[in-house]
Amino acid sequence: MRLRWTRGRLQELDPLDVYDLLALRSEVFVVEQTCIFQDADGVDKQAHHLLGRDARGLLRAGLRIVDPGVKYPEPSIGRVITAPTVRRSGVGRELMGQGIQYCRDLWPRHGVRISAQARLERFYRDFGFQIVSDPYLEDDIPHVEMLLDPEHAL
Questions:
Q1: What is the pTM of this model?
Q2: H-helix or E-strand containing 22?
């Protein structure tokens, strides 16, 4: 599946992009994962957003890249999401590759930190991320912090 990528700060995105992103995050994080949490956490205002739309214009993937110093000393990738209809199609891998490259474009000499759902550890390891924390619960879901070295090649 070929996606068209849009990236920018929240205020640079089209209002419909923001609506579609919040709707997809709600569909997956709140409904599918049955996790009640405050998605609008204020961090989106201090982040870059990457959105992937299919040929019909439907939002299929997205993530946010939080500025260094907001959550961690490094830039961080979070709210990584793919629509249920495109899972196991390679869209998630393309999304992460695009996200890592976006981080490198913005901050070329920084590592990238993530708070990863523990069940996805292998997925993130494939990109070079290494576990740097003990497991912990975030919104009652097991997570680990992972770090990508700034020198790791894509």
A1: 0.91
A2: helix 15-25
